[in-house]
Amino acid sequence: MTARHAPGANNAARIRALRKAFGAHLVFDGLDLDVARGERVAILGASGCGKSTLLRCIAGLERSDGGTIATAGEIGLIFQEPRLFPWLDVARNVGFPARTDAERARVPNVLALVGLAHAARRLPKELSGGMAQRAALARALVRDPALLLLDEPFAALDALRRIELRAAVREILEFTRASAVLVTHDVDDALALADRVIVLAGTPAEIAFTGLVGETATRAAVLDALGVAEVRPRLPARSARHGASCTS
Amino acid sequence: MARFAVPLARFAVPLALLAAWWAATASGWVKSYQFASPRDVAREVLDLAQSGLLWRDLGASVERVAIGFAIALVLALVLGSLAGGSRLAERAIDPTLQGIRAVPSLAWVPLILLWLGIGETAKIALVAIGAFFPVYVALVSGIRGVDRKLVEVGTIFGLSRLALIVRVLVPATLPQLLVGARIGLTQAWLFLVAAELLAATSGLGFLLTDGQQTSRTDEILVAILLFAACGKLSESLMRALEKRLVGWADTVPA
After folding, report:
1. Does A74 contact B at CB distance below 8 Å?
2. Nearest CB to B152: which of A61, A87, A97?
3. In Å, how far is B243's CA from the nearest CA of chain A?
4. Does residue B141 lie within any of the structural domains?
5. How far apart are CA B151 and CA B194, in angstroms?
6. Mean pLDDT, to the nearest integer, of A153-179?
7. What are the C-alpha distances in Å from B217 to residues A160, B15, B31, B189?
8. Which residues of B are less than 8 Å from A96 in CB distance?
């Protein structure tokens, strides 16, 4: 059982000695992680390494088997899929978590923030994938969360929508100054959105790499930590007649 | 032309059947004691309407269906919510109900007549038995089939158990429940015929047996047509209700 208490004045989340097992499979055994206030952390790692499980533990959707998780203030969570309530229009979906009149009054603002002011009355079935994910983002923001958890939020989108939404999320994170934990398998997403990149690896998963974007967390370093060698294509010969090939 | 052809197409087959019916009886190819002519049937409808018997029989049948269906709906909502909401309750009640459900409808008739006599109670009980199961089964599978991912969203936003039921589970279950109710209402009419054929002094089923005993095919045909109209009308009402309440569903389950 995880104890919940304040994460400390400067932290949005503090995880200490987290232990989590699914049956005999030990996902975490003593994981420590701090997320500072206003900090945006990207978590990378191979499929099934426990990235999403970590997020679900922080959100309280999974019970951990030991250790402490402390979070400050409201948590907003965005999943891979929008998970909108199909019976509510966009505005009502976004207003779903609101408890006070002040929070309800924020609905038009967050809708404008994600660029959906024009679609407030539409039903989820009338939205494109990108619009639905924007609505989910607005819903996560309506209670002004101190910590935003994003679980592969762009995974279900096509490449163009992905670039669009990534830019939107980046602007929103700048604007709200919320702390964020982004789970992704995309190095570019991580480098574009995060201040700090963490790579999880091993069973049980441990932090194999941590670095600040713009300092040690370069694309090459992160890929290296993930154990991925970027394959450079062997370019075809410029002119077959000369038999010259260029390799790099 | 095509603009009118599509809306008119739905009337083509009924009109052709009516014409064939009229031709077969008017030419004397089919005798009136075998199959009444459209004219006889129309006159019988007017006669029954004028004497008030039409409204008495129609009213009696509609009332039995309405009361029986209402009882079935309440019972199915209570038992279905229990079985759908709790594994323990499902273990306790579902096998028994599935066993009862396996009994063919007409097998209940002798027992119910012995228990409840040939009065209204027996007929309403039979209608309720018929209407109960489709609603119950749909509700249990509806509750079981609620998207766990949507429930998680409710959990993250800190919904209480009651709020989770009211704001997530009930709306998520509604499409299935309404489909079950529509099928249940159709079953209610089916069981009503069984009940009224066996023992009744009023109702559309009584009209059927009365017509049979007095060899009046016009009366039988009137009853059949009224059954068709009632069935179609209640089906349309339920579909309108579905469209209004669960029009949000991406696909309306069949």
Report:
1. no
2. A61
3. 12
4. yes
5. 43
6. 88
7. 70, 21, 10, 21
8. 153, 157, 167
Kindly provide the ipTM of the predicted complex, given to two decimals: 0.80
A79 touches chain B (CB under 8 A): yes
| B251 within some domain | no
Task: Identify whether the C-beta of residue A114 lies closer than 8 Å to the C-beta of residue A135.
Answer: yes
pLDDT digits (tens, 9 = 90+) for B178-229: 999 999 999 999 999 988 887 778 899 999 999 889 888 899 999 999 999 9
Fold observed for domain A1-70+177-229:
Rossmann fold (3.40.50)
In sequence order, the 6+-apart residues with CB closer than 8 A to the CB of A129 are A82, A156, A157, A158, A161
Structural domain boundaries of chain A?
1-70+177-229
Number of domains in chain B: 1
Contact A96 B167 (CB under 8 A): yes
Residue B58 makes CB contacts below 8 A (sequence gap 6+) with: B204, B226, B230
Range of the domain at B238: 57-246
Tens of pLDDT, residue by residue over B136-172, are 999 999 999 999 999 999 988 889 999 999 999 999 9
The two most distant CA atoms of chain B are separated, in Å, by 76
Instruction: For chain A, give the number of residues.
Output: 248
Q: Is B248 an interface residue toward A (CB < 8 Å)?
A: yes
The answer to the question of residue B169 being in a domain is yes
pLDDT grade for A238, boundaries at 50, 70 and 90: low
CATH number for position B116? 1.10.3720.10
Within 8 A of B250 by CB-CB distance, chain A residues are 86, 125
Give me the residues of B, 115-154, that contact A with CB < 8 A. 149-150, 152-153
